[in-house]
Design brief:
alpha/beta, 5 helices, Rossmann fold, single chain, two-stranded antiparallel ribbon, 25% strand
Length: 230
């Protein structure tokens, strides 16, 4: 399966995301911000970074890039899309996901290993996880506080669209400890932590098998491959 990985000016984690796709067994396809051609990919990853320098708001300029316009149309048709950190911010700016991202409550950049609880294991990007499973993946952001009005938050909770929740500690003040959400169809998922940095032994968070042994993020990428062939 061909998984597109988008690069904007200021993207930092596109190569990491592409490697995660390959480790999961997929073919990573580079997509350029100024090109509206999605090259016939079966899914898309919007990786982390500081697209366009995060000028105006994080993700605000990327929302108008030709590739984003194409992704919005394809996502409405069912294309699986994953937004990681800055990619999550782009998805909210493009109105593929509800809510918005603002500066962390403590107004500082944060980088840490973060535990999450899988709240929805039925999306295109989470089907290889178990409901309620606890995973640890890296978190690094400055504009990572997820906010929405109470009605929207109630709808997300009631419809099972909160996909991940911070456990142990809320690192950025996100409403209701929300770390990731999905659209109604479940093909679009956004989250602030970085699963692509926890896919290979020796380079991820500390895990049960020892230092840097954590690979909890790999199931994001195997999940989408599973969903595409099911």
């Amino acid at each position: 399966m061909r998984i597109g990985v988008v690069t904007f000016p200021g993207t930092l984690d596109d190569r990491d995301a592409a490697r995660a796709v390959r480790l999961a067994g997929g073919e990573a396809v580079a997509l350029w911000h100024a090109d509206a051609d999605l090259k016939g990919v079966d899914a898309v990853v919007l990786p982390g970074g500081f697209s366009y320098g995060d000028y105006l708001r994080a993700g605000a300029i990327s929302r108008f890039a030709p590739v984003t316009q194409a992704i919005v149309d394809a996502a409405k048709g069912g294309l699986p899309v994953l937004g990681i950190c800055n990619g999550f911010q782009v998805l909210t700016e493009a109105h593929l996901l509800p809510g918005s991202m603002i500066k962390n409550e403590h107004l500082s950049f944060i980088c840490r290993e973060q535990e999450l609880r899988v709240e929805n294991a039925s999306t295109a990007w989470t089907s290889d996880y178990a409901q309620g499973e606890l995973i640890t993946i890296p978190l690094k952001n400055q504009d990572g506080q997820y906010v929405a009005d109470e009605r929207t938050l109630d709808e997300l909770e009631g419809e099972g669209r909160v996909v991940f929740r911070y456990t142990g500690w809320n690192p950025n003040g996100s409403r209701r400890d929300i770390a990731g959400v999905s659209n109604e169809r479940g093909n679009v998922v956004g989250l602030m932590p970085h699963p692509e940095h926890a896919v290979e032994p020796g380079f991820g968070p500390d895990g049960a098998k020892g230092p840097r042994s954590g690979t909890d993020g790999l199931k994001f990428f195997t999940s989408v491959l599973t969903s595409l062939v099911s």
